[in-house]
Design a protein that fits this description.
Blueprint lengths: L2 H20 L4 H8 L3 H8 L7 H10 L6 H11 L1 E5 H4 L5 H12 L3 E6 L10 H15 L5 H11 L9 E7 L10 H14 L5 E6 L13 E4 L3 E5 L3 E5 L2 H16 L4 H13 L5
Length: 280
């Protein structure tokens, strides 16, 4: 368990203890009112057990402070958000991060993803991935282990061919035109993307320019088995596991999907982006 997580859990426990004492209860008294074992009260207050939203609602009600329930549950959601600095993760280079994702995807049956700025790692060619990793290593000033990281990223793609896996991925059309690599490398990447359309395990949708949207394209995110969301920013990776956060990102994905095109229409958008490279 991370130190940050445990510190936050202890802070939540301290707030529960504060509310209890303000209401005039000792540990035994509030346990009786709640119908809990005294040991549960102790574990919650000392950060040895994670409360459920129902626990927090019941606690706030018993201590006569129902308006505190929202604050307590907000603190709980904070526990369920894991924040990992890229600088810390990349201290030894990119390969370890790529290996972590290999494990993540192999233990997941259903993945829903959205990218607004880059071809998803699952669909990248080695050359495209190499340019991205070099740029990122320069930006983060992390060790350069590009070749090993590329090989690890390619291993991640093996899950596309495993039985029982489903990948539902959306990208914004801008991704097809973002030249983060030489034009010939981008052409090969677009050919790779076009070749994925029609694969049984993959549903690739493109949100076109000009389509009516209920929300802006926002940032990329990935939903794993409808239980966990991973969001990447420039300096941090967030893992969100609360039911409310997962439901929110599912609604965002569904909204973007309403404007997405698939099959031949998606293929035409890719072909148009490739033609714009003007490699002749």
């Amino acid at each position: 368990m991370s130190t940050d997580y445990q510190t936050a859990r202890e802070a939540l426990g301290a707030r529960l203890r504060e509310l209890r004492t303000e209401a005039g209860y000792d540990g035994k008294g509030i346990a009786e009112r709640l119908g809990w074992q005294r040991s549960k009260v102790s574990r919650l207050e000392n950060g040895k057990q994670t409360a459920t939203p129902q626990d927090l609602d019941a606690w706030a009600d018993v201590v006569g402070a129902p308006t505190e329930a929202d604050d307590l549950k907000s603190r709980l959601r904070g526990l369920e958000t894991q924040q990992r600095s890229w600088r810390r993760q990349l201290a030894a280079g990119h390969r370890s991060v790529q290996d972590k994702y290999v494990v993540e995807y192999r233990r997941t049956a259903t993945v829903r993803g959205y990218e607004a700025t880059v071809i998803p790692g699952l669909f990248q060619t080695p050359d495209y991935a190499r340019h991205l990793l070099i740029h990122n290593a320069e930006l983060m000033q992390s060790p350069r282990d590009t070749d090993e990281a590329v090989r690890a990223r390619m291993r991640r793609q093996e899950v596309l061919y495993e039985a029982g896996k489903t990948f539902r991925v959306l990208i914004w059309e801008a991704v097809l035109h973002a030249l983060v690599c030489p034009r010939d490398v981008m052409a090969g990447q677009l050919d790779r993307l076009a070749g994925l359309i029609g694969m049984s395990a993959i549903s690739l949708g493109i949100v076109p320019f000009g389509v009516p949207l209920k929300l802006t394209p926002k940032h990329g995110f990935w939903i794993f088995d409808e239980q966990r969301v991973v969001v990447e920013t420039i300096n941090t990776e967030f893992a969100l596991e609360s039911a409310e956060d997962v439901a929110l990102y599912e609604r965002v994905w569904d909204s973007l999907n309403e404007g997405a095109v698939y099959g031949p229409q998606a293929h035409r958008l890719i072909a148009r982006a490739r033609a714009s490279l003007d490699l002749a």
